[in-house]
């Protein structure tokens, strides 16, 4: 089993429910156990600014899936949630799933880079990641808590849990 962290985001439809359901579905992938989920955060869009705010969170999993197989499974979950890839980069989406970290592995293949290439620049990733794994070391970059201290996360807001 390898410890991995997956970022989740949505800004179309009922994003809070989409992200909550996706957290459970990621943990139910073959050979995968959900260890924990962060809170959800309301975050401004990144890249393309003329779109609704996002709901973001991070899940920690243990998985026997290889990085490429995990990516395949995550892309399937995105499609099932209504995401159509190939549309505007960084544009609106029903569900976005990104492998942030996969153990301490460095992966640089066509279509897959781990750690996620923009991880250290994005408050919407670092805030929920720091909530569940502040001392986690990002290969080549340092601890999550230290990366978070270097960026402005002032426009992001932690949300109360969804009512059961």
Summary of the model, kept short:
The chain is an alpha+beta fold and 164 residues long. It contains four helices and ten strands; from the N terminus they run E-H-E-E-E-H-E-E-E-H-E-E-H-E.
Q: What is the element layout, followed by pairings?
A:
Blueprint: E1 2-10, H1 15-27, E2 32-37, E3 41-43, E4 54-63, H2 67-80, E5 96-102, E6 107-109, E7 112-114, H3 123-133, E8 137-138, E9 142-143, H4 144-149, E10 157-158
Antiparallel strand pairs: 1-4, 1-5, 2-4, 3-4, 3-10, 6-7, 8-9
Search tags:
164 residues, alpha+beta, Alpha-Beta Plaits, 4 helices
Order of helices and strands: EHEEEHEEEHEEHE
Give the fraction of residues assigned to helices: 25-40%
**Uncertain residue ranges:** none
Residue fraction in strands? 25-35%
3D structure, described in words:
The chain is of the alpha+beta class. It has a single domain (about 1-160), classed as 7,8-Dihydro-6-hydroxymethylpterin-pyrophosphokinase HPPK (Alpha-Beta Plaits), CATH 3.30.70.560. About 25% of the residues lie in helices and about 30% in strands. The chain has four helices and ten strands; from the N terminus they run βαβββαβββαββαβ. The chain has helices at about 15-25, 65-80, 125-135, 145-150, and strands at about 1-10, 30-35, 40-45, 55-65, 95-100, 105-110, 110-115, 135-140, 140-145, 155-160. About 40% of the residues are buried.
């Amino acid at each position: 089993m390898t410890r991995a962290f997956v970022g989740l985001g949505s800004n179309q439809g009922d994003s809070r429910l989409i992200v909550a359901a996706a957290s459970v579905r990621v943990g139910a992938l073959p050979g995968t156990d959900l260890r924990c989920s962060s809170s959800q955060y309301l975050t401004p869009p990144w890249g393309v600014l003329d779109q609704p705010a996002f709901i973001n969170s991070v899940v920690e999993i243990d998985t026997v899936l290889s990085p490429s197989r995990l990516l395949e499974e995550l892309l399937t979950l995105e499609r099932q949630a209504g995401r159509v890839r190939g549309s505007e980069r960084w544009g609106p989406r029903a569900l976005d799933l990104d492998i942030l970290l996969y153990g301490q592995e460095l992966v640089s293949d066509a279509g897959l880079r781990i750690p996620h290439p923009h991880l250290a620049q994005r408050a919407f990733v670092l805030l929920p990641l720091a909530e569940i794994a502040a001392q986690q070391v990002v290969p080549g970059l340092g601890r999550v808590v230290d990366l978070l201290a270097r960026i402005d996360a002032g426009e992001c807001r932690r949300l109360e849990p969804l009512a059961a």
